[in-house]
Amino acid sequence: MTAALILNAVSRHFGNTKAVDSVSLSIQPGQFVGVIGRSGAGKSTMLRLINRLIDPTAGSISFGATDITALKGKALRDWRRDCAMIFQQFNLVDRLDVLTNVLIGRLAEHGFASSMAMRFSDAERTMAIQALDRLDMAPKALQRAGTLSGGQQQRVAIARALVQKLRIMLADEPIASLDPGNATRVMEALRSINSEDGLTVLVNLHTLDTARAYCDRIVAMRFGRVMFDGTAAQLTDDVVRDIYGSDGLAEFNEAVTSTSIKAGAHPAPIPA
Amino acid sequence: MLPPDIWQSWAEFSEIAKGLGETLSMAFLGTLLGAAIALPLSFLGARNINRLNILRLGVRRGYDFIRAFETLILALIFIRAFGLGPLPGILAIAVSEIGTFAKLFSEAIENTSEKPIEGFRASGGSRLQQIRFGLLPQVNPVILSVLLYNFESNVRSGTILGIVGAGGIGFLLSDRISAYKWDEAWSIIFLIIIMVYVIDYLSGILRKRIIGTWEAAK
Asked: Which of A75, A141, A256, B45 could be B106's S-S partner, Cβ–Cβ 3.0 to 4.6 Å?
């Protein structure tokens, strides 16, 4: 079903900026990997490189026996379908209803005429409703996507990923604009995709306690390079300070940025 | 001028009714024809669709060139080519609307959000599918509003086209004015006002019905 994802010295430069600087990673099937790092550390760029929304300047990415960086045309679109991606801003079409937004995940299978007419088969609609039902969103199927809350929109985006029959899940800061309750729901959905379907999940996160709670493996990036690669237990305070380069911050308190309900209900006061 | 004339026989009024109908159909056909040609052109002129700068700027200067000819001037030209009647009126409206619509549509296309389109790209949609599902739902309401308003505006400017001989109610109106039949002229103006009012009312209903409901998959 799924295969190992291997990044081999992948770089992406924007002008003189090295957004991703020769990153090599080997991600085994079924791993739940959290990517952390400062804003601008190259986390988003790395996910976009894997999905091929952008092309690498150098290096190669492979999934099983497939060389992702060499894909073109239909094969490239099939790869994008296989590695579903969700975004911080959900990227749904506000004016279309929820069901259509989910069915969009089936478009890679459609020819010109059926997609221009927005025509989907009953089997596809059943699949979409099942995916929505799995995320408790089936009752909202006929509502416009724009009228939903952020957390609901993100779950619709995950349902879309499910109907794509994904093989690997990429999530670009999926909970960064959600409240704690919705953030938990979205993370639980990703965990179920990982544990029940056995799929690899790669998620960019800003909240360290979320990364610790959900991820088998944490990869930290700084200035486009991988700074740390290990388990949550190996991610000590010293390492965290290195990753975020908390210059001037005497103390670095995870609870202050936490969006979790369980942990850190009473965050320590920020030193004046 | 007052009181306005009230036509006593159907024979008299039918001429006026035919003129009004002609103006209405000229505006309708002209707007539709203009929009049908402008829509594909507007994609060529939108920065986020057509990334070839030379072609895009060329197309945009093309819109400007067309807009430089006022509808009235176009009508005079087409009357020379096709003779008096509604055909030059329709063509004059259509051609001048190509320039206006193409500009307004392409700006609406440029003002759309990239995010839904990126959402599709990431799930394997082709460029055309991205435009169909990510972009068109965003621009459709704008296109509809522009179409309805310009249809109404063309009904009004259609009156002027009639005065220069391109068919419709304007011809009858100028005829009455030159014959000093002010009571009849006033009645015609009154009917034009009612017609514009009705169009505005109906387009409001149409907008609500179409934009109010969402585009659902079949």
From this structure: B45
* Domain assignment present for B206: yes
Chain B residue numbers with beta carbons less than 8 Å from the beta carbon of A105 are: 123
- The torsion angle over the Cα atoms of residues A140, A149, B115 and B140, rounded to 10 degrees, is 60
Structural domain that includes position A193: 5-206+219-225
Residue B106 lies in a domain: yes
* Positions in chain A short of pLDDT 70: 1-2, 246-272
**pLDDT digit string (tens) for B110-119?**
999 888 888 8
Q: How many domains does chain B have?
A: 1
Q: For residue B69, give the CATH number of its domain.
A: 1.10.3720.10
pLDDT digits (tens, 9 = 90+) for A109-125: 887 788 788 788 888 88
Residue B21 maps to a domain: yes
Is residue B217 assigned to a domain? Answer: no
Q: How far apart are CA A121 and CA A110, in angstroms?
A: 10
Query: Are the beta carbons of B120 and A104 separated by less than 8 Å?
Result: yes
> A108–B121: do the CB atoms touch at under 8 Å?
no
The per-residue pLDDT for range A156-190, each reduced to its tens digit, is 999 999 898 888 999 998 888 888 888 888 899 88
Is B214's Cβ below 8 Å from some Cβ in A? yes
- Residue B10 distance to chain A (closest CA, Å): 47
Give domain status of residue A77, yes or no.
yes
Chain B nearest-CA residue for A49: B122
Q: Residue A26 maps to which CATH number?
A: 3.40.50.300
**What per-residue confidence (pLDDT) applies to B109?**
93
Long-range pairs of B169-177 with CB within 8 A, sequence gap ≥ 24: B169/B16, B169/B19, B169/B20, B169/B22, B169/B23, B170/B23, B171/B19, B172/B15, B172/B16, B172/B19
Q: How far is A172 from chain B (nearest CA, A)?
A: 12
CA distance B97 to chain A (A): 26
Checking ipTM against 0.90, whether it exceeds it is no
Token pair belonging to B51: 């990334």
Tokens of A200: 């690899």
A112 part of a folded domain: yes
- Check CB contact of B217 with chain A, cutoff 8 Å: yes
How would residue B218 be classed by pLDDT, with cut points 50, 70 and 90? very low
Residue B51 sits at the chain A interface (C-beta within 8 Å)? no
Question: Which stretches of chain A are assigned E, i.e. beta strand?
Answer: 5-14, 17-27, 32-37, 58-63, 66-67, 83-86, 168-171, 200-204, 217-222, 225-230
Residues of A in contact with B115 (CB under 8 A): 87, 89-91
| Residue A84 at interface with chain B, using a CB cutoff of 8 Å | yes
Q: How many domains does chain A have?
A: 1
B213 touches chain A (CB under 8 A): no
Is the predicted pLDDT of residue B80 greater than 90, yes or no? Answer: yes
pLDDT at residue A69 in the model: 86
